[in-house]
Design goal:
The chain has helices spanning about 5-10, 15-20, 30-45, 50-55, 70-90, 100-110, 130, 160-170, 190-200, 215-225, 240-255, 270-275, 285-295, and strands at about 60-65, 90-95, 120, 140, 150-155, 175-180, 210, 235, 265, 280, 305, 310. It has about 325 residues and is of the alpha/beta class. It has 3 domains: about 5-55, lambda repressor-like DNA-binding domains (434 Repressor (Amino-terminal Domain), Orthogonal Bundle), CATH 1.10.260.40; about 60-155 and about 285-305, 3-Layer(aba) Sandwich (Rossmann fold), CATH 3.40.50; about 160-280, Response regulator (Rossmann fold). Helix 12 links the parallel strand 9 (about 265) and strand 10 (about 280). The model has no long low-confidence stretch (mean pLDDT about 90).
Length: about 325
């Protein structure tokens, strides 16, 4: 198998010049560049990408840690990162964890072995104290706020959005308000949802809180529980428009009218929510992902807040 020394000999140039051509270095004459490329073609040479990455000092590849794929919220952040990767000529490696803390640390170690230039964390299972040491080896960008100086972040103010969401329902005459969550109290966003609810309504009745909701089917299941209660909620704040759509479908199957019998508020402005006219809290997660990628390639430790918005439709 040919190597760069064989290429150099064939082209009548130095090995350094061959290396410069392989790395698209601008300080090579057109004549020498043509000679090297002709020699590469004649010898059927395939560059060793790992070697080139070591020479260049970067892989042009960013890792994105996501707990789950096929989840609208994480998919939106990933979509934002992919938008920017195409724009800047980078590749994206998707790193699913299922909230496995050990797997998350294995992915972070890819910075140490120079397999990635940077890592974006859309949601984490480890404490920051276990994550921050890896910033020695490359940029780590969070999609939630952290005050750790070593970590850049692109984030939205989830707590403020939850308070605004519950106030919206209260201002529309609702006091019996239920809500759904993805994870339990080990999740920061779930804790923030509980706290926001308490600030607006007081402590939520335990039967008004349904966890493990990720999909349309989960929303349907949640509605079966909530709408069979003796004291039915008059409004439900779902942790995703897909979940809200499942609630909508079950409510309609009972002959209920949205919003006269039940008000619905979802999250993330997803296509299903648009189709069913569901009001939503849009955390603009595509923009969060885009900004996170920008911070990653700039090796920035800035804290950039992305504004959320509440989109009013016919479900309230």
């Amino acid at each position: 198998m040919a190597n760069i020394h064989d290429i150099a000999k064939k082209a009548g140039v130095s090995a350094t010049t061959v290396s410069r051509v392989l790395n698209n270095h601008k300080y090579v004459s057109d004549e020498k560049r043509r000679a090297v490329k002709n020699a590469i073609d004649e010898l059927n040479y395939t560059p060793n990408r790992n070697a080139i990455d070591l020479i260049r000092g970067e892989t042009k590849q960013i890792g994105v840690i996501i707990p789950y794929n096929n989840n609208q919220a994480f998919d939106q952040m990933l979509h934002g990162a992919l938008n920017k990767s195409i724009e800047h000529g980078y590749s994206v490696l998707v790193l699913p964890t299922r909230y496995d803390a050990k797997k998350e640390l294995e992915y972070l170690s890819m910075l140490q072995t120079k397999m990635l230039d940077a890592i974006i964390i859309t949601s984490r299972s480890n404490v920051w104290g276990a994550i921050t040491p890896f910033t020695t080896y490359g940029p780590i960008i969070s999609c939630e706020y952290t005050d750790h100086a070593e970590i850049g972040c692109s984030y939205m103010d989830r707590y403020a959005s939850y308070v605004d969401a519950f106030h919206l329902l209260k201002e529309n005459g609702h006091e019996k308000v239920a809500f759904t969550t993805a994870r339990g109290m080990e999740s920061k966003s779930t804790i923030q949802t509980f706290t926001a609810y308490e600030d607006v309504f007081g402590k939520p009745p335990s039967e008004y809180v349904i966890s493990s909701c990720y999909s349309l089917q989960d929303g349907y299941r949640a509605a079966q529980k909530l709408l069979q209660l003796k004291e039915k909620p008059t409004a439900i704040y779902a942790n995703g428009d897909e979940v809200a759509t499942g609630i909508y479908q079950y409510a309609v199957s009972l002959g209920m009218h949205i919003p006269n019998d039940l008000a619905l508020l979802g999250q993330e402005n997803q296509p299903m929510g648009v189709a069913f006219g569901i009001s939503t809290v849009d955390h603009q997660l595509i923009k969060v992902g885009e900004q996170a990628f920008q911070l990653a390639i700039e090796k920035s430790k800035q804290k950039i807040k992305i504004p959320y918005q509440i989109i009013h439709r016919s479900s309230i």
